[in-house]
Structures are given as C-alpha cells and as structure tokens.
Amino acid sequence: MPYNSVNTNVGAMVALQNLNATNSDLAMAQNRINTGKKVANAKDNGAIWAIAQNQRAASGSLNAVRDSLQRSQSTVDVAIAGGETVSDLLLQMKEKALAASDSSLDSASRNALNEDFMALRDQIQKAVNNASFNGVNMLNGAGVGGAVTISALADESGQSRLTVLAQDMSLDTPGSAVGLLSTDSIGTQADAMTMITTVANAIANVSTALSRLGTGSKSLANHLTFINKLQDAVDAGVGNLVDADLAKESARLTSLQTKQQLGVQALSIANQMPQTIMSLFRS
Fold it and tell me: pTM for this structure?
C-alpha cells in the first residue's frame, strides 16, 4: 500500500523513469527527422544496416557495369560508322570497276577510272584506321594488336561479360571482310572484270559484318537499360529498409513533445509530495 516517506519518493522515481524513456524516444524521432533515416548506423539496427550496406555495394558496382557498357557501346557504334563508310566506298568501287570493264574505253578514260578506284581503295584503310574510340579499334586488323573484340562487364561480380566480336575490314589482311589488297587496281579490262567479283564479295561480307556489329550494339543498349532499371530497384530497396517516414515521424514528434511536457509536470507533482508530510507535524 502507498506510504509517505522523505527518504524514498517512489512517485518521483516512476515519473523520472517515464520522462527518461520519453526523452529517449524524442531524441530518436528528432534524429530520424534530421537524417531522414530510421536506420542511420549499425547501432540503430545492426541486421538491417548490414543488409543495406551490402545492397549499397551492389548498387555502386553497377555504376562500373554501366560505364563499361556505355564505353563498349560507343566503341561499337564508332566501328559501325566506319563500316558503313567502307560499304559506301565499296559501292562506288564496284561502279568504277564495272565501267572499266567496258572494252570500248580509251586509255585516258580507263586511267581516270583507275585513279578514282585506287583513291576509293585507299580511303577504305583511312576510314578503318580512324574508326577508334578511346584507343580501341574493332575494324583495323592491320593495326598493332589487330582488331579488338569488345568484352563489357555484365554484372556487379565481374564474372559475366557481354562480348561483341571484332570485324576486320582492313586491306592486306587475311580473313578481312573486305578482302582487298592495297595494290588492287582496274588498269586493264581483265583487272576490272576480276575486281567486279572481288568488290561484290566484299560488299556482301561487309554487310554481314555490319549486321553483327549492329546486333552487338543493340545487345549492349538493351543490357544497359536493364542495368539502369536494376540499379534503380536496388536503390529503392535500400530506401525501403533505412528511410524514415517523415510524415509519421513528424506526428510522433508532436505526440512525444506533449508527453514530455506531461512527464515534467508529473515529476514536479511527485517532488512536491514530501512537503505534505510537514502538515502532519503542525500544531
């Protein structure tokens, strides 16, 4: 049963415990509002914080994957631009070869056609040499190290790769899609007849190579879209784990402030109780 004592004020002790608990909850609510997070560090919730950190690491790794895909896509797109130029040059070369196959041509006309043909031939190698992005060339098999195959990162572990094969279009290179030599010409009718077939084959092979590059570029673009969506989903998941509901925390803060004021009042009342004992000893 309740008793009165000047040594032990049970009411004040209970009121102080309740006030301390309210102050602790109030500090937590204020911290969530200040940081915007319900789990700001490992002390708040060790398990949730660890999960969130692991997912943050995965999201950060996806930045490297995205950079690799974008860089690779740019390299392939530059190669496609170079390959399309080569294809256009081959079309013009076939036209010149066909014209030079006419037996009725005089020497001056044949020489003019041959000069045009050789100029177009040399432009092919120039286009191939210049089809580089960030020092990587997928078309120049005659360059140092040959034409480069692209191998882009596909996931955050680095174990999966997205590959786009090199498509050699250089002159004087065995296995090149172009299949031309830097000495080819249409100086005679016989040479022109031979070049008609050679250039026609080159056009078909370059078209196939461009199709492969186009498919590779599209694959890189599709995977990049997926990686962007995946990273957004991971970031949203981390937010669901650690972010605070500020509307809820604001309402809770108002409630705790009211509760704190009542706790202070209750403690004040409890501290006044021993003074009533004095009335027992007044005559």
Answer: 0.77
Please state, in angstroms and rounded to a whole number, the distance separating the CA atoms of residues 226 and 60: 15
User: Which helix H or strand E contains 191, and what residues bound it?
Assistant: helix 189-242
The strand pairing partners of 42, in sequence order, are none
3-state secondary structure of 109: helix
Whole-number Cα distances in Å, 242 to 24, 58, 142, 212, 248: 20, 16, 55, 45, 14
pLDDT tens per residue across all 283 residues of the chain: 456 666 667 777 887 888 788 887 777 777 777 777 878 778 878 898 898 888 888 888 999 999 999 999 999 999 999 999 999 999 999 999 999 999 888 999 999 999 999 999 999 999 999 999 999 999 999 877 788 999 999 998 889 999 999 999 999 999 999 999 999 999 999 999 999 999 999 999 999 999 999 999 999 999 999 999 999 999 899 888 887 777 777 778 788 788 888 888 877 877 777 677 667 666 5
HSE value, Cβ hemisphere, 13 Å, CA-based, for 204:
5
The H or E element spanning position 137 is: strand 136-137
Positive or negative CA dihedral for 174, 179, 182, 183? positive
Helix (H, G, I), strand (E, B) or coil at 56: helix
Q: Determine what percent of the chain falls in helix, strand and coil, rounding each to the nearest 5.
A: 70, 5, 25
Instruction: Report angle CA 148, 178, 151 to the nearest 5 degrees.
Output: 20
- Alpha carbons 156 and 57: distance in angstroms, whole number: 9
